[in-house]
Amino acid sequence: MGKKFPNWEDLGPWARLSCRVEFAGLWSFSRLIPLLSWRAVRGLAWLLGGLVYQFDQRGRAYAKANLEMAFGGEKTPEEIRRIGRDSYRQFARSMLELFWARNFTADNYPQRMVMEGWDEARALNRQHRGGIFVCLHYGNFEWLSIAGSFERLPGCIVTQRFRNPLLGPIFDQLRAISGHRIVPQERSMLVTFKHLKAGGNIGVLIDLQLDPRLPSVPIKSFGRWCSVTKLHAVLQKRTGLPIIPIESVPMADGRYRTIAHPPLHFSPEATEQEIAQQCWDAFEGQVRRQPEGWLWAYKHWRHLPEGEDPARYPFYAGRSGDFDALLKAEFAPGEAPAEDKA
Predict the structure, then answer these.
(1) 50-65 burial string, b = 16+ CB within 10 Å, else e?
(2) Is 139 within 8 Å of 248 (Cβ atoms)?
């Protein structure tokens, strides 16, 4: 099932000491980064991301396998390595710039983000009294969330628990600086549903693999099956609210195009799987065009479907009866979309 971390009361003395030391280091770091210039933060992220890429042998192997699967003969080995390394650097930027975001106000954030489509998103939001915003771990997804609230579209952010329970409040405070409400992952479906019915908004990251025993649906990304959250699809079916794709695209000058796209449209008969698939499809083109913005050092395709050629999936993919059952529950025999053979 999902990760289950012990409560503070269940930790032993050494574990608590380790948590406190880790907390002190992160707290100090979170206070230091906002004192640096934005240019210095970008340079530090470039350096740290490159170093982690060199030393993170496991993550580097995941990134290489994912990129080779996604792009095959389209890109040279040198391009694969560059994209993998730059993906690490972009993720490092996202984390350091989250700490630096303490410098943001409602007046100055557009200096770092080029806002597109948010007037239309606000108008749609007023019309429907709420909305479901979906995005990927792409570009600076942390600033994307912060900007959404500065654009007068505050909402719920569902957060995962940390192994170290002292770290969560640091990140919660940063993610709420522009007005978001932080919701713990436990019972998030019920809380977000009530929030939407009361006229609120929610944001959902839709691209990370989810244990098929949890509330998930199978989708195809880059032509391969994976299981992802179905939270956004379930809520759309229950509320009828629009789903609005939003994304943060890195620009050459260091800023981000922070885009609220037009809402996706679904037929009344659309299944949760079809809604989730359409949401992913709204983003895959951008990931293909500028792949270094995505989180490649992650096991996105963990499950090898029954009857599939293992060579078409990354080396870490393995058989899962639970995933096969999820596919069979969504598609009658012979109805699942055929695998792309290219």
Answers:
(1) eebbeeeeebbebbbb
(2) yes
